[in-house]
DNA sequence: GATTTATGCCTTGACCTTCTATATGTGCCA
DNA sequence: TGGCACATATAGAAGGTCAAGGCATAAATC
């Protein structure tokens, strides 16, 4: 997996990560796969973006991490959502909703828009 | 007009500006008003974000600027879209579409998502 | 008419945050 | 031995915010 570009606007990545982690404990590498699959290849997060993001989220107390074993017997750092993280997820999801609606309104503007 | 926060993810502002300018020549101040109104107050771009963005877009050749007079007799810098700018607008609008769909897919994930 | 105040309109510079690129390290498995 | 799964660190660019400042017109006050 060669992770090229994601073209995610800054700030969006956190939301997506929180969402994926909310589904159950996962390690970083799996998060990226999950995002790739679920978005049908549109969201491809390079490791250099993913891991710093995870660290930030952990530092902010939104995620908690612990080492554990993968099904295939490897060590990996599993993340789960804290209570604070869940609240943040809801907040960011709502914000995203608001934003996309607003942008949508703007993109539909035509010459007559009061 | 006290412009507080806009909370736009980075990279989105360009798209919105290009869109507004595409409707006809406008000056910066009016662009901000337009965005505010059209988004019903959700998108409030502070001047410190707006003007640097305009300068960047001009430097990239997507906008062309010239001083002119406002209807009320003031001097203002009017921006219009270049051919290159119009192409970029279409490109970014399509990208935004793609992105929102992808994010939407991810946000709808539940435990069963393959 | 003169003075203040508000408002329209533009600019810039220092700072912070996030994304990217890149390089490096380790254990598993073929 | 090599490749893959999984992680880390560092440095840099880009975009956004704040804060401050400047200037012109208009409205309000005296």
What's the quick description here?
The structure is a homodimer of 114-residue chains. With 114 residues, chain A is of the alpha+beta class.
Structural class of chain A: alpha+beta
Cα radius of gyration of chain A in angstroms? 16 Å
How are the strands of the biggest sheet of chain A laid out side by side? 1-3-2
Helices and strands of chain A, in order, run as HEHHEEH
Oligomer: homodimer
Q: Which percent range fits the helix content of chain A? A: 40-55%
Beta strand count of chain A: 3
Outline of chain A, from the CA principal axes?
Answer: elongated
Segments of chain A where pLDDT lies below 50 for 5+ residues?
none
Overall mean confidence score, pLDDT of chain A: 89
- Please indicate the percent range of residues of chain A in DSSP E strands (runs of 2 or more): 5-15%
Secondary structure tally, helices of chain A: 4
Summarize the biggest pleated sheet of chain A: 3 strands, antiparallel
Q: Most extensive chain contact?
A: A-B, 37 and 37 residues
What is the rounded distance between the termini of chain A?
49 Å
């Amino acid at each position: 997996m060669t992770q090229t570009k994601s073209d995610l606007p800054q700030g969006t990545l956190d939301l997506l990560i929180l969402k994926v982690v909310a589904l159950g404990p996962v390690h970083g590498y799996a998060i990226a796969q999950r995002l790739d699959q679920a978005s049908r290849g549109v969201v491809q997060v390079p490791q250099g973006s993913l891991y710093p993001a995870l660290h930030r989220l952990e530092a902010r107390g939104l995620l908690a991490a612990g080492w554990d074993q993968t099904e295939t017997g490897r060590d990996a750092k599993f993340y789960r959502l804290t209570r604070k993280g869940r609240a943040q997820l809801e907040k960011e999801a709502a914000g995203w909703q608001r934003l996309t609606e607003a942008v949508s309104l703007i993109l539909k503007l035509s010459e007559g828009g009061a």
